[in-house]
Fold this sequence. Notes:
By secondary structure, the protein is of the alpha/beta class.
Amino acid sequence: MTTTPDPAFIALARAWMHAPTDALLALVWTAYDDMQARPPTIDTRDLERSITQRLEARINDAMSGDEPFRVQHGPYEHETMAPSPAQPPQYDIAFVLRSDERLMWPMEAKVLETAGRIADYLEDIKDQFLTCRYAPFSGSAAMLGYLLSGKTSDALDGISKKLGCTLHAVSGSSSTRPHRISHHVRAVPAGKHYPKDFTCHHLMLEFSGLKRHT
């Protein structure tokens, strides 16, 4: 059973993460660099989940333990769960606020076989994030593209074109990375107090040499 969040909860949800690029996504890049320096075993039969599982472990390794959040692979979003017997949405990875675990900053991952294979990636943005089904309480979130072949710049250009908006460069520690942001206005369900303005972070993580096997 869900209840309407009180004003204090809504204020916390809007305030807890002001600078995800440096506070959260720098940890993702550190984890990715570790995977490149010391490639782990990846099960190519289940490529997306296998990469994500290895990435989450290394994000955890990169954290000091003093952060006001933890990282979790596969948490459920009960806020936007449809009536039973429906299953709640499940994030690939999320940063979870320690003081109130209802508040999550999610990251969704998609394997891109080539720089032009972006349909599934775009679907998560349009059908999940921009409808508030994902990240209902957060004004931002991230998409992780696991790029197997092609240029990251081509993938980002294609995403920009298909979304019909500009992907802007980021500042700070990620400024030299294939990391861009796009700004959107979400369709907030009637009676909900979710953030309407939404920023999507786009990170292209290259995994050249990996191939999906069945």
